[in-house]
TrEMBL record:
Enzyme class: oxidoreductase
Domain NADP-dependent oxidoreductase: 2-266
Protein name per its UniProtKB record: General stress protein 69
CDD domains in the cross-refs: AKR_unchar
One GO MF term attached to the UniProt entry: oxidoreductase activity
Record keywords, A-Z: Oxidoreductase
Enzyme Commission numbers on file: 1.1.1.-
Length: 297
């Protein structure tokens, strides 16, 4: 498994617990520097994340430190020529990032993947001409992954899914094992549910009446095992060997420090216990909690 830095936080005000706004340009630089110096060699970005691609491009060209790049194709307009749109977006990302190729190019919209095979053909051509190395789809739901597994015909190299200790949908029906068998890599995001796991009671109550109860249980279990919540959330991810990349979004240097420490610390002996705890307490967490698109705040 590899640690990847998520950079929506660097390009825009992002997250449910965000009180300080997006980091300044120099703070963003320091987060990228710290990540690079500590062995994080990939960043996840998107054209949709404000000036995130531009900051990464500026960092790489100024410091000569190059990350592998995962970025995303924005939702397309069907009334306009698809090939022109896709190619213009790819050029824009390449220019912003100041690179010649994108390592992982995700469709930001599952609907674009499902509704138009033409888009995949266009991406394939860009794979052949070397502008894009691997093609992926960023999704929210297991039915979307099921659809990809049944229809991808070898076109899809990687999927990006939200995965965390409250969201056990992805461990039902061996869906990750089936993804791996198809040779599709798994990239996970939202391991802290955008920071929800660190919220206080008042803010948790606004999301759903049961959120506080779930987070309290997590805190109790973390304390019993001498961990903090961020580490427990990370070790839960690490206990799933089907995952290839784990994405963390950071707004401060302290957070990236802590997340790197968590990622490299060895809690293998606790994996079984953590998985049992998750199964016991979080098998049916409400969709209004695990899907940030449904949050009322
Ligand atoms: N559809 C898509 O493709 C999609 C959608 C969403 C995100 N993403 C990607 O995923 C990345 C991560 O976003 P996410 O939603 O998955 O967020 P996440 O990683 O679950 O949570 C990140 C937030 O948690 C807080 N945090 C991080 N480390 C912490 C620590 N050690 N201790 C305490 N708080 C900590 C920070 O928020 P505060 O400081 O504000 O509390 C941070 O903004 C994004 O940057 C983006 O690259 C992709």
């Amino acid at each position: 498994m590899e640690l990847v830095l998520g950079t929506a936080q660097l390009g825009m005000n992002y997250g449910v617990n965000n009180i300080s706004g997006k980091p300044s340009f120099s703070e963003g630089f320091n987060i990228l520097k710290k990540a690079f110096e500590n062995g994080v060699n990939m960043v996840d970005t998107a054209l949709a994340y404000g000036n995130s691609e531009l900051i990464i491009g500026e960092f790489m060209s100024r410091t000569n430190r190059y990350f592998k790049i995962a970025t995303k194709l924005p939702k397309l307009k069907y009334c306009e020529n698809l090939k022109d749109q896709v190619e213009a977006y790819i050029e824009k990302s390449l220019n912003n990032l100041r690179v010649k190729k994108i390592d992982y190019y995700f469709l930001h919209s599952f609907e674009d993947y499902k509704n138009n095979i033409e888009i995949i053909k266009i991406l394939k051509q860009n794979q052949e001409n070397g502008k894009v190395q691997k093609i992926g789809v960023s999704i929210y739901d297991t039915y979307e992954l099921d659809y990809i597994l049944n229809n991808s015909e070898g076109f899809i190299d990687i999927v990006q899914i939200p995965f965390n200790i409250f969201d056990l949908r992805w461990i039902k029906d061996s869906i990750l094992e089936r993804t791996k068998e198809k040779g599709i890599e798994v990239f996970v995001r939202s391991i802290y549910l955008q920071g929800l796991l660190f919220l206080k009671k008042d803010a948790l109550d606004k999301i759903h009446p049961k959120t506080y109860q779930y987070v309290s249980k997590l805190l109790e279990f973390a304390e019993e095992n001498n961990m903090d919540i961020s580490n427990l959330a990370m070790q839960y991810i690490k206990s799933h060997t089907e995952i290839n990349y784990v994405l963390v979004g950071c707004e401060t240097e302290e957070q990236i420090d802590q997340n790197i420490r968590n990622f490299y610390s060895d809690y293998t002996d606790k994996y079984k216990l953590i998985k049992e705890f998750a199964m016991k307490n979080y098998t049916d967490v409400e969709k209004e909690i695990i899907d940030p698109r449904l949050w009322k705040c």
